[in-house]
Each structure stands twice: as C-alpha cells, then as structure tokens.
Amino acid sequence: MWHGLVLTWPCRPPITQMFAAVVSILFLLVAEPIPGLSATTRPTTTTSAAFARRVVKIFDFDEKHLGNLEDLPMNWDKVTLSGFPHYVNGKIDDAVGNPKPSFKFQLNGGNIGYVFSERLIPAFPGSDHKILACVKTQNLRHARGYLQAFYMDRFGKLLPETIVYSALIAPADPGDPEWQTVTMELPYTNSEGRFIGIGIFLVQQDQLPRLFSSPVKSYRKDIDAALWVDQITVLRLPKARFGLVKNTTLYNSSEDMVIAAAVADSKIDDLSARIILDDLASGRARTIEHPVAVLPPLEAILRGQAPDPRLVTHNMGHLQPGLYKVSLQVLSDSEIIIDKNVKIAVLQPKKTVTEISDFGLDISELPIGQPRIIADFAEKLKPAWIVLPIWRKDLIVSRTSAEPSPADQMILAINHKGISIIGALMDVPEELVERTNIINPNIWDFFAGKSQWWLPELSIVLSRHADRIDHWVFGKPSDGWHAPDSRINGVLKNLKKEFTQFQGQFTLITSWPSLVANPKDTPGDGFFMQIPPELVPGSFKDYFKPWQQVRENLWVVLGGQDLNEYQLQPAMVDFVNRFIQAKCNRVRLMATRDLWTTSSPIAPGGYEPNAYFVAYSNLVDRLGGLDYLGKMQIDAERSGLLFCSSERAVLVLADGRKMDYQGIVCLGEQPRAYDLWGRELPIRTGLKGLEIPYRPIVFIDGIDSELAKFVAAIQFDPSTISSKFGTHQAKLLFKNTFSQGISGMVRMQGPAFWQFDPSGTRFALPAGKEFTLPTKIRYPGNESVGQKSINLKFELEARKPITLNLTLPLYLGACDLDMRVLWFLRGEELVVCQEVLNNGTTWTDLIAFMICPDKPRMERQIRRLGPGQTAVKEYSLGPWKQMFGKTIRVGFREVRGNRLVNEVITLE
User: 817-839: per-residue pLDDT in tens?
Assistant: First the structure.
C-alpha cells in the first residue's frame, strides 16, 4: 500500500502449495543466505556472529559479477503512480557507497520510488524480521525519504496489513556521520506470509503517507535532492511481543505497572531474554529474566493453526513518580539482537483543589493523529487551559460535510475531559492556501481586506464550538509582526463583529514574536508569545518588567531544551526554573509544549511521554493556583521562594551545587517535601527544626497559608544599616495575617558580639494589624560589610501554640560608598584589586587597607573621591601558590568620619 492505494503486482508463474511448504522448511533449516540471492564478497552492515547467522538477504548493489551491466539493480520495479514522472529515475552509482556502489535516487521535481517484489527474499514463518539500510542525502530541504517492508503470500500477492514504514529520512544534522542507518522491524502477523518485499521512496512533503507525523507540509518542491541507499540487510529474528497490560504509558504512583512479553524461536539454545526497568530519575535499573519458548511446529504455522506464544506478565508494582524506560532485550550468545522499549511516566495522584490553575498546554503545532490519546495525556496533566489547532495549514474545515474534522474531534475530546478554558489557534487552512495560490501566507494577509476568503470558514468554526472555546489566538509567534501593523486594528474590529453573532465571551489574543513584542501596542485583548530557550531564567526579571501592566492578559509558552542533545538533569532543572522564575515575575498564564513524542512503535498510537511531562505535572500539582509572596531566608547562605493561595502555601528551595545538603525550615507541623519529579523526600527533625536533604530543587508543601503570609510580612526597616561606629536605629515589622487575634513573644539574635536593645518583646495583635518593634543595634568595629543573618524566634498563640524559627537578612553597607574586590594572576603573582565607588553627593577622603595572614598590613590613600568617581587600588600578595585558599580582609575607613567598611574573602 502506497499513499492510500493498493498496488497489484504482475502475475507470477504459479507454484504448488506443497513445493512452497518444502521451500519454507528448507529456509528454516538453513541459517545462511541461499547462494545466488545475495552477494557475499563485500562487508555487511552487521558483522557480529549473532547477526551474521541470521542474515536472509543483503542488497549491496554490486551486481556486475552477476551479469547485470544495466543502470538499475536487478528486480527493482519503478513506481508509476500519479506524481511519479517517468523522467525521474534511480540508478546504480559506482562512485558513491558504503562501500561503493549504491542505489541513487535523484529528483528532478516530482517523486520517485522503487519496489523489490520478486519472490526472492524468503520469509521464515513464525519468525519476525528486521531490515537495516545505510542512507545518505544531499540537497534535501523539503522532500523526505523512507523505506517500506511487507510480506507477500506464496503467489507474490501483497498482504497490505503487514506493511511497515521506516522513520523519515531527513537531512543529517551538523556533526553527524555522512552515512546514517535506518532500521525497521517487520513482525510476522499473517500466517500466509512467505516472502518479503521492500520499497524505497523519495517524495515531496505533500506526497508523504498520512501516517507520518511529518514537518509542516510545504508546497515548495525539491528539484535536485538526492538519496543514496546501500547495504540493505534483511535479518530473521525470534518472534517477540512486548507491551503494557493497561495499554497506556501514563500511570499513577498508586497503580501497578504490569508488563506482558513473549519470546519464541525455532531454536533457543543460544537465546536468552530479560526485562529491564530503567529509572531515568535516579539512574537505577531493575532486571528480570524472561523465558524463551519454542515456536510451534512449522506445519501448524503454515496452516495458520499455531497459537501465538503465551504472554508472560511481570508486575513491577507501585513505582515512584518519574520517567521510566521499560525494555525487552533478547540476546544471542550474550549479544543483544532485539531491544524493544517504551517510556512511561508515573505521576503523583492528582489532588483536589479549588484554586484555578494558571498552568496550560500548547498543542497548537502538534500533529493531530489520535485525539482521544492526546485528550488522555492532557487530562493526566490537569491544565486549566489548552491552545489547540483548529485552523491550520494541514487542517481542513469542510463546509459541505457533517463529518467532524480532526480539530473538531480534538475540541470535543478535550472538552469532555472537563478542561473548559480552551484557546483555539487560528492559522491558515490548507484549502485557503490552495484557493488563493499564496505560498506560506501569514494569517494577517488573509484577514486584512480579504474577508470573503475566510468569513464562511470562520462562521462554521464559531457555530460548531462557540460554547466550548473561550479564547481565540490568531497567528503563530513565528508569523507575528516585527513592527506595529496598521492593518491589525481594523482586522480585529471585523473579527469582533463576527463574534457578536454568537453567544459566549471571547478574548481576541494576537500572537507576537517574544523578542520584538511591544506591550504598549494593544491591538487585541491580550498577547500570546513563546519565550525562546536562549533566554535564561535569570533574565526573566528584566524581560517581563515591561509586561507587568498587561500580565493578566499575557499568555506565555515556556519550552525546554532538546532532551536528545542535553543531559537529563541539567535540562530538567532549567525547565523547572523557567516556570518558577516566571511565577516570581507574576506571569499569570503559563504553558509549555513538546511533552511527548509520537515515534514509539509500542506505545498506544505511538504517543510516548518525555521527562518534561513528569516535571510539568509536578509543577501543576505544587504551584498551580499559587501567587508569589516573596523570599524567605533559610540560613546565612540560602533563601527560599514562598508561593501562596487562600488555602495552602509552598516553599521552593533551589540550589545549583552538585552535592546534597541540609535545608532547615520550620513552617508547620506536617510539611511534605517533593523533588522536581514529584517524589516525596524524607524529612527529619533536627535541633533547629526540620532538616530536608535536596538536590537541586525541592518543593515543601503542606504549609499553612496564614503562617506563610505571616513569615513573608516580616522585615527590617531599613533593610540596610550603615557601617558606622556607634549605635544604629532599625525597626522589626510584622503583620498578623491570621484570621483571628494572636499574641506571643519575639526574640532577636545576631552574629557574635552583636547587640540588640531591646532584643525582644511580647505582643498582642488583632487580625490584620501590624506591629513595630524599634531597636538599637551595635556591632563590632571589624565587622565586614554584606548580608548578615539575624535569627528570630517567634512563640505565637493563635488557634494553637506555634514556635517559629526564622532567619531574616539585614544588610551592612556604607550607603553611598560601594566596594568590589577582585583577584587575578599577574604572571606568578597573586594581585588583589579593590574598587571603591562614591554614590554620594559630596567628596570624601579614605584610607584603604588589606590585611593578610603572615604579611604586614597594607594601606593605600584615596584623596578627594568625588561623586560618581571610582578609585582602584591594587595589592600584590606574592606567589599565588602560597596564597591560594587563605582568608584576607579588605576594606576602607573615612579620614574625616566614622564609617568603616571591610570584607572577609577566601582566595579560591
């Protein structure tokens, strides 16, 4: 079957059934290829002994020694369907190969395909088969290549239900080898199969079979693309069946994950099999031995009376949340000859909350092949909204047929899952492109002044789904404007007129390229944009600052790195940090995309989750519906991020260091800690509170929201005190965020030799009232500048007694004088560089100094440092090998004044 058509082959000379059976028996008994059917004078693509004895046929296209002096290899027939012109042909290329020669497919427009359908590749009844090929491409831009394999009966008739396809052959990525290997498995599913056929195709994208999840189909053609194919090898393998009993790749941690597998062959002396469960989150693996059965008698197989090998189940039990790879491996003499695997995601059971989640899902560019499976994936994530494609280049909205389109099916399936806030992506449908003959048009080209082209189709969409779709997104970020377009306002006015004919509330959201969007231009009711992965989470604060005024109507899509190119753990941390930082910048509507693939031959419909699916599900559970409260200091080095709603609160701790460490928190009696996979972490009770080991991100859930708001409201005023000799005034501020009055006591304790007067007090506060504790602070004269950790202990009497241990930052600085210390090598000498900046309004004289162990005190004068000026002083400490790892003190003091600044630094 090619491109939806069933081809019939020319009649072959008849052959008796008995002769076919005898030949099949001989094929089973002979492990080596039959002489004359495949060349054996050249190296093969499979050189190991385990594979070599299973070779059925090799096409190396070196056929001159067989008497073939023509341009085409023997017995390969050209496909002559519509769109496959006679002047586009393949040939044997003596100059290129792996090794030379090879079968070359050269386009000149149109499409090209060749099929090997002679009864010369025997099928081994009952056994599965595998096809491998080496391929190379040139000038491949829009066209794609692929291979087919299929079974034929004893008369050479194609068995259509046995056709399998390879993955699409695309241009090689930079750094890839020149020749790539393409593989496909051909399971024995029809007892009438006696021979194997192979097809090779190089076609334009609009001629690809529908089953391919191809790139965006383009009407542009490749004129000079080329494909070389070499070393096509057909292997006989044991019969292997492998799958998941529940026929799903998504599980809850409270469900059993059961695997079913069967392995059988005619001879099993050299075979063994095993099931491997890889926990990709922890890097651990579990292996279970699997039995290998003997195939039924050949006679029973040929008659179609042989039962399938008995499936053996393996119950893996309850698994922790995470991403797992489940594999069936069959080994011959300890060498793997079959490796079937599928990825599964295990999630935490979804909790029931009343908050409206702000997390969404963007599937606007996802191929719509299995709406039901996509809806199941979406339901497992529990997003609040989804952007799905309803008008797209590869989707058709029929005005004459009542049959629901794929987009209609998707909307209905998702809506039935209870996800009611849906955004519909409006791009340019394929039929409009054909009608207007515009290549790759922008949707705004259609909308601006050409309403007769799109009004009928848009009316159909609105009439079908006006009660299901709440938001409409027009255009993709890649098709947005790089400058304000004067046509847009008029276009949106026309669209709003169309919407008024139907019931329901609609939001018109225009799509913008994220790096050129201007929040001051508001042609629609909101903005939809994708943040590129090149924008690191640390840059989000500056990036989202101009968007704060429209953040309630800002739809943001945050993607992750390519998991095939990056290590799993760093990519996951970066992905999770994007959403955490976006929430800290108070972005309300966030979504992601590319959480699964459609390439697995084992997963239902091919849909297989990736690691981001698990991480995103955990983000929805932990942070969905919560608002950012602020930072909470954990200890002298680390701080956490508090997120809260009216019902619950979550503390997020993140650290980039590789080693585990202890984070001490105290925010409730029954907190629960989860890592970025959603796995619950152990919590121990230590001397200072709760100790939670984590690396590199932990979500602490189960925190009382009123208590979290109380902690977030505690602060010093001012938060920075000047580094002057003497006494300093500051206020400790906090607010009663509980729904009832509270009373209690607070005590403060600073670093060694710090004094607070008073260091604590009793208080009683009605609900919603603030409390101010003025205090006098003294610290040692040699105290260094920077952040200082002040320990607070609250003993609260609220609904029940609460003891709260906190660390609050207080900054010590010179107010209008800033200092930065750098160190570097000058030859073998270690040099310390001190920069002092005057941010004040008057000039000043300073004495800069540096104190180093085993060296005399070094001082430098800074005369008349004026406003806005910077003074730079250097100190040479001698050979760096002697100084590395030592602690020094660098600072300055005023000549006429009492300010002193010094900083303790370890030279690393």
Answer: 888 888 888 888 888 999 988 88
Question: What's the pLDDT tens digit per position in 767-824?
Answer: 889 999 999 998 887 676 677 888 888 888 877 788 877 778 887 776 678 888 888 8
Same domain? 298 vs 154: no
459 in the same domain as 431: yes
* Contact (CB, 8 A) for 660 and 649: no
As a dihedral over the C-alpha atoms of residue 579, residue 582, residue 584, residue 589, rounded to 10 degrees, the angle is: -90
Angle at the Cα of 631 (from 630 to 632), degrees rounded to 5?
A: 125
Give CA–CA dist 151/230, Å, rounded. 21
Residue 712 has phi, psi (to 5 degrees) of -65, -25
Which CATH number characterizes residue 64's domain?
A: 2.60.120.260
Give Cα 56 distance to the centre of its chain.
40
CA distance 665 to 873: 42
Instruction: State the sign of the Cα–Cα–Cα–Cα dihedral 297, 298, 303, 305.
Output: positive
320 near 679, Cβ under 8 Å? yes
Residue numbers of the domain that contains 883: 817-906
DSSP conformational letter for 79: P
Task: Give the global pTM.
Answer: 0.76
Alpha helices in 701-830 (DSSP H): 705-712
170: CB partners within 8 A, 6+ apart: 137, 140, 144
Write down which residue in 237, 254, 289 finishes a domain. 237
Q: For residue 207, which of 132, 107, 116, 57 has the smallest C-alpha distance?
A: 107
Residue ranges with strand state E in 79-155:
90-93, 102-106, 112-116, 128-138, 144-152
Supply the CATH number for residue 809's domain: 2.60.40.10
